[in-house]
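Researcher: I'm preparing a figure for a lab meeting and need a structural model of a single chain. I don't have an experimental structure, so a prediction will have to do for now. The sequence is pasted below. Please return the structure as tokens so I can convert it later.
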Amino acid sequence: MGNRETSSELQLFALVLAAGTASRFGASKQCQAFRGEPLVRRAIRLAEASCGRNSILITGSEWRRVADAGKPLAGFFVLNDQFEQGLASSIACGVRAVSTVADAVLLLLADQPLISTVHLTELISRWSAAPQQILATAYAGTVGPPVIFPQSYFAELMALQGDQGARPVLDKNAAVLETIHFEDAAIDIDTPADLERLR
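Model: Understood. Here is the structure written out token by token.
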């Protein structure tokens, strides 16, 4: 099920989180076009450039439409039937799907359109050199995704609840958290106005 893409022969799986209802956007924002392709397809392309077939799309709301917008997939998609409970349920769903085969997961959001392959390559390179560390992105005075969590944190990720993402796991494990600054990660798409400004 996987490519051994990192220098240490470890299995890293990219989880593209695209299951939300996008209530503030008013439509399925994952399917909205940015620079000629749907946001979800852009995120998948970045994931596949980094992890190849070890790329998983997590769907939920309007899952057929989102999955279609993400095609073709080198990996596969997982349906989170508890997506209405918030982002944490999608993280838990994705981690659970690969927990027996992954050494780490790379969490990617479909609504961060300015993430670059260069940034992901740097995250993965740093993680490969220290595979027990958490590697997160620093921007706008905070830290968050894209973020790599080693397998030792899977149980904590699968226990997450609510709409706060992986923040509790990052806060609890600050001593083993390394960050790479990438200010463009601060740009996310919550409303149509956000997307229009980027366009």
